[in-house]
Each structure stands twice: as C-alpha cells, then as structure tokens.
Amino acid sequence: MSDANDQEQKRPLTLSRPSGRLELRKSVEMGQVRQSFSHGRSKTVTVEVRRKRTIGPALEPGRVEASPIVMLDQGSARPPTQEPARPPVMIPRALTAEEKAGRVRAVHDARKADEEARRRAAVAEADRRRQAEEQAAEEARRHAEEDARRKAEEEEKRRRAEEEARQRSEQEAQRRKDEESRREVAERAGKAAAAKVAALAAAGKVSIPLEEEEEEPSTVARRGTRPEAKKPVAPARRQEIRRRTGKMTVTRALADDEGERVRSLASVRRARERERQRLHQGEQEQIKVVRDVVVPETITVQEVANRMAERGADVIKALMRIGVMATINQTIDADTAELVVTEFGHRLRRVSEADVEMGLRGEEDLPLTLEPRAPVVTVMGHVDHGKTSLLDALRETDVVAGEAGGITQHIGAYRVSLKSGKQITFIDTPGHQAFTAMRARGANVTDIVVLVVAADDGIMEQTVEAIRHAKAAQAPIIVAINKIDKADAKPERVRQELLQHEIVVEQLGGEVLDVEVSALQKTNLDKLEEAILLQAELLDLTANPKRSAEGVVLEAKLERGRGAVATVLIQRGTLRVGDIFVAGSEWGRVRALVDDRGQNQREAGPSTPIEVLGLNGTPLAGDDFVVAESESHARDIADFRQRRRRDAVAASGARGTLEQMFSQIAAGVAKELPIVVKSDVQGSLEAIVRSLEKLSTDEVSLRVLHSAVGGINESDVILAKASDAVIIGFNVRANPQARDLARRDGVEIRYYSIIYNLIDDMRGALSGLLAPTIRERFLGNASIRDVFSITKVGKVAGCMVTEGAVRRGAKVRLLRDNVVVHEGTLKTLKRFKDEVREVNQGYECGMAFENYQDIQTGDVIECFETEEVARTL
C-alpha cells in the first residue's frame, strides 16, 4: 500500500487537452550514489538533484496540436508564449465530435500509461529494496570482518608493543651494564696513560704544553719535541668527566664513551620504591573493609554511619533510595538500619534491650556441686480450716492472734527445726478467694503442698481451688484432716469427697498421704512432720549453696524506718550481706537479713525464707530475685524492666480508654467511680485491685487511679482531689499533713483491715451509681360510656370502673381496640359534681385528660402508677 502511495506521489500532474497534456513535474530528482570510506568500507546514499521547474504541453513525438484556448487582449491576438500587458481573457470555443473522440482516446491512453508506469515503478522499487537489503547485509558482513581483523591487528600490535617494551628494558639494562664496564676500563686506561706520560715527562723525553687545549699523548710522542717543564696535570675525578663543560683533556679523550650523564643507581632504586608504594596504595583503595555493625532496636542515622565508617551523606542517600526521608540525627528502626548496612556490604549483628538480662541467672549446676536442702511446704486450704493454727502448733508460736478478723491476709514463710535436726520451710497462704494469685505463687515455688481440710466442714470452694493450683504446679499433695477433736468431725466423709477431685488417699488404696491432726490439741503433729520428710526423701531435693543466690519474692512491704522490705525464698545459692541484687524491676544492696523470728543473719542458704532490707523500691510479689555481678549491671536490668512495665501499662491504659470511649458512645455515658488504693504489703494490694476490678459492669465501673504500698501522703490526696476519687487505706493510715489536706479539700478517706468489708463497701458504692429500676403497678380499668363537651373545660368522658380502682393523679392510658392511642395523666376525676380521690369498681365517674381531647365512646382507660426500685450489683 505504501509503494502505491509513493508511485502516486511521484506521478507528474497532467492536464488533458486535445493537442496534448500540460505536465507539472517535480523540480527535485532522486538518485543513489555510492560513497567509499577508509579501511575499505562503502555506503550507498540517496541524493537529490534540483532543476528548474517547467510547465508546458506534453506532445507525442511528431504530433502538434493547436491550443483549444485563444488568449485575446483588447481585440488583438498575441502569441501564447508572450506575456500580455494586461490580464488575458479566456474564451472557450465549442469542441467538435472528432476533438471529443480524441480527448476520450487521450484519456484512455493516459490511464493505461499511468498504470504501466505505476507497475514498472513498483517492480523497480522492489528491486531497489532487495538490492539495498543485499547491500546492507554485505556491508554488515564486511564490517564484521573488518572489526574482527581490526581487533586481531590491535591485539597483535599490543603483543608486539609489550614484546618491544620487554626487549627495550632488557637492552637498557644490558646497555647500563656495558656502560659500567666500559667506564671502569676507561678509568683504568686513563690512570695508566697518565702515569706513563708523567714518567716520560719526569725523564725529560717528552714535554707537555700547558695551553688550555691539551694534546693527546700520541700527538706529543709523534712530534718528538721536548715539552717545557711544567707541573703534571692530575687525572680528573669521576664526577668531573660526567659534565660536558670545559676543554678536552687526555683523560676525557681516553674515556670519551663516558660523555653522557646517566642516572645513579640510588635514584633508580628510589623511583622503583615510589612506584611500588603507589601500586600498593591503589590496591588498598580497591579493597573494601567489611565490618560487623551492631544495631540495637532503635539507632540514629549518625550512629549507623559511624559504626560502618561511612559518610553520613551517603547513608542519607541510601535511605532516600529506599523511600525513607531522615536527617542525620533522626532515629530509625532496626529493620531500616539492616537494609542500609546490607546495601553498603557490611555484616549486621542485631541486639535487643532484653540482651541486658542475658547471663543474669548463670549456668546450670553440675551434679557434683549439689547438696541436700530442706523441703519447701505450702499450706493451702479453705478459710477458717485451721491452716495458720496448724503452723502455730508446729512452730509453738501464736501468729493467728495478731491477724485481723481471724483470717490470714498475708503470705507467711517460716522455718521449723525438728527434734531430729532436720528443717522444714513452711509457706502460709491466705484462704480467701481474693488471694487466688497469692496462692498460685505459693504453689509455684513449693515442693510439697499440705492440703488442710476441716473434718467438720469438708471440701469447700477454696479447697477445690487449692487442689487445682497444686496440680498445675505438679507438686505432691499431703492431706491434713484438721479439727478431729470436734464432736461432729467426720474424716471418712472428707476422704470420700476427695475422690470427686481425683485424690485417692492411702486408706482407700491410693498414693496420697493423709494425716488426721488437731492443731488445738496438738495431736499427730509428729506424724505430719514424718509424712513431709518421707515425701521429701522421695523427691531427692538438692541445691548448690556455693554460688550466687537466686530466689523469688513472696511478699513486699514499705515500713517506716526500714524502707522497702521483701520476704524472699532462696531457691539456690547463698545470699550474704552486701550482695547486689535485682528483684523484679527494682535493685538494691543487702543491708540486713532478718529471719522469721526477727533475728539478724549474715547469710541465707537454699530453702531459707528471709527478709531483705536495702531495696530501692517495692517489688511485686512473685518477682524473681537474682544476685548481680555489679551495681551497673543491676541498675541496667532494673531500668529496662521498669521501661517495659511502663510501656505495658501505657498500652493497656490506652486500650482501656478507647474501649471505654466506644462503649460510652454505643450505650450512653457510663458512670465511673475512681479510687486510690494504699496497702501495707504488695500481695494484699494486688488482691484488692483484682477484686475491685471484677466489680465493674457495663453501666458502672470502678477505676483504680493509683495503687501503691505505704501510708497515705499528700500526693495521694492531691490526686484524689483532682479526680474526685475516694482514698482506700488497707492496714495503713494517713500522715497528719495528708489528713489536714483531705479535711480541707473534702476528700474522703476510708480505712479497712478486713478485705470482706472493703469489697462490700465498694460494691455498695457502685450500686448507688446504678440507675434505679422503674416498675409499673396496675390500678384499674374504666370503660367510656359517653362523651360530654363542657364549655371552658373541653371533653369529659363518662366512665364506668370495670376493674380495680381509678385514682386521681395517677398515670392513665387510652386504649382503642386494645391499642394504646394516648398516655398521660388525669386532669380531673369527679363523682357527680364533686372531685374525688378514688373511684372503685362498679361506680360511675367523669374523667378528663391533660392536653388531650380525642376521646370516643367505647374506649377503655387503664390506670397505673410507677415506682423506682434501687438496683444492686
């Protein structure tokens, strides 16, 4: 299609006429010229030849036709080739039949000629393109051959240049060697000739002229004249003949090959050394040093650049290439730093802040270093089943007398020494349900669990919970059936109830030891101790006392004059006064060790409960206790744990705030009771907070603003004042300044010593925040018999009370076909002409509604009243 268009464009424009055709030919002709280049290359190019454009009739050979158009100019005819002075007037004349037939033939001939020309042009174009392709292929082949030949020639030239350079270097070395040898020969010959001339001169056989230009010895000898008596000239030294200055001498004539000055050997050595250093420096620059880059969780861009020994600008460019826009002092995360370090070709070694805790606990103990230790026994059971009384009987003390409400609210740890010399460590856990977490910690650090069950009470709720904790800790259980001295004691019932919880005692064919004891009468206490020691021998309890101490915090409190005090159970190693330790997120140095009887100790071994003084803060009950190698290490670990705990609290607080916000949006504004809790020990504080959090519902919630161990101070009162909160003190009191501030600001402080009372009061306070329940009480129905319109009053319904009674002031509903159409209050209730307070069933009355007039005969009026009922949690 493109070839036909090209031919159509190349065809000349023609205008048919009887005598011929007027043609308009292009003034540019196309042609091809072959150009030759160096190295035997050639190329065919297309050129244009411009000529003058001519317009005239295209006549066939031997035929001349007259023009059908006559050009007139004011009545006189002019030749067509002459340019008229004025614009010509074209006057067409009528054509004859022969002229028309001739024109038709001319048109047909022109068409045939055009088609033949186009066909020939197409064939010619195809041939031209084929020739051009063949020429292009030939040129490409020739160019490839020329490139290969040129590469071979260049390789040959390079090889020849290297060979010539090697030969030149060898020739230069040989030339220098020959010059050295010739110089030595010339020096020896010069010295010999000078000596001979001097001898002849001394003998008077020859005279040496003293002019500036000396003669050679051969010339002097040939002349045979006697030289004048002159002082003989000493031969020139080596450095003097190396310069082309002055007159020629005999010595220079004899050693004429030394005319050129050459480099010294030291200069050549220095040049070679400089070249070797330059090459060595170039190799060092090319070799990149790969470094181990330590990257923490967060790091600045400047620090990354410093650790890689790279420019800060290059690091910023690398960050920009991966889509991170950061400045030199901006902090990036470890993943981004890893991408940058990898791009620069260095090795990455990631570290975490938690790595500071690595190696804190040390290695595992070898079997040869282990020694027997005392068993740790946890006493568990239900409230008021005699756990603490049993421990008092074993220790021959009276701990229960000092407990509030007669119940244990703290974890107690005691060391009992038996008559046989063996020792047992007892851990007393509270039995109240609020201390579930404390009992769980007691079971996790224990070796043997003593389950105390009252013979007159049986298995209770907290007894079942204690069994679950013991099984979760995989600790063996010894059942102590207490209070067998009572008249209604039934130990067999206790054994039968234990079967429901998969505990089979020995009397029933099981493996669980059970002992019937009486803490009050001190009955069978020796059998209980024997059962504990027997179980301990089966467990084969051992520990390494010759290492740094490790243990667990059982309880922590804040005391006046002593600071933070923690009750710690040492599990392995020995704790000594002066040791630096880490307890949870706190650290400190041991200032004093106090045992369960209040006596100071210098050290505490495995399975020993001890009070530790010297903490920086109050740790949480259940935190680990580990002796650190240095104060800086302990401080770093404590700081890391404090940051982690703050982040966790902030995250949980943010989630709680969002959840509360969404719940308030969905279900209205939720009422909230903020409180501040202060307790004497950490375990009780944790139990109180968990119990109070369980009281919250969807409508009312209890939010603990602050909880800590210690007395109530001014900051607690200020916080409660700012948040309209209530301060709760459990076994603690406010100082005088805090009391005065609370009295002035109107902040309520409540003191408690029994956890039951605290939880009940908070439940009552939350119940007061609940919206009261609205209850509806039905009074009676009345049927409308007739409707009366009264001036200045409106419509009044004449009714008959059909059920119950109708009271004035009560709320009413208007029912039409059992559908409520209005609900409001009665405006008036009349019996005949008198206002009455109540109309009973079977009596007629008149009633009117407040702000409502659409009443009809047959409607029913329902009368009722509402009352508010207080809700409780």
Overview of this structure, please?
By secondary structure, the protein is of the alpha+beta class. It has 18 helices and 41 strands. The strands form eleven sheets. Strands 15-16-14-17-18-19 form a six-stranded mixed beta sheet, with helices on both faces. Strands 21-22-28-25-24-29 form a six-stranded antiparallel barrel. A six-stranded antiparallel beta barrel has the order 34-35-40-37-36-41. A hairpin with a 3-residue loop joins strand 34 (773-790) and strand 35. Helix 1 packs across helix 2, helix 6 (301-308) packs across helix 7 and helix 10 (436-444) runs parallel beside helix 11. The longest helix is centred in the first third of the chain and has 107 residues, at 97-203. The radius of gyration is 62 Å and the shape is flat. It starts with a helix and ends with a strand. The relative contact order is 0.04. Residues 56-85, 206-243, 397-409 and 654-658 have low confidence and may be disordered.
Write the SSE topology:
Elements: H1 2-10, E1 13-17, E2 20-24, E3 28-36, E4 42-50, E5 55-58, E6 69-73, E7 76-77, E8 89-92, H2 97-203, H3 217-223, H4 250-254, H5 265-286, E9 292-295, E10 298-300, H6 301-308, H7 312-321, E11 331-333, H8 334-343, E12 347-350, E13 371-372, E14 376-381, H9 387-395, E15 412-417, E16 423-428, H10 436-444, E17 448-454, H11 461-472, E18 477-482, H12 491-499, E19 513-516, H13 525-539, E20 542-543, E21 550-559, E22 563-572, E23 575-576, E24 580-583, E25 586-594, E26 600-601, E27 603-604, E28 608-615, E29 624-627, H14 631-667, E30 671-679, H15 682-693, E31 700-709, H16 714-723, E32 726-730, H17 736-745, E33 749-752, H18 755-769, E34 773-790, E35 794-807, E36 811-816, E37 819-831, E38 834-835, E39 838-840, E40 844-849, E41 860-869
Parallel strand pairs: 9-12, 14-16, 14-17, 17-18, 18-19, 30-31, 30-32, 32-33
Antiparallel strand pairs: 1-2, 2-5, 3-4, 6-7, 6-8, 10-11, 13-20, 15-16, 21-22, 21-29, 22-28, 23-27, 24-25, 24-29, 25-26, 25-28, 34-35, 34-41, 35-39, 35-40, 36-37, 36-41, 37-38, 37-40
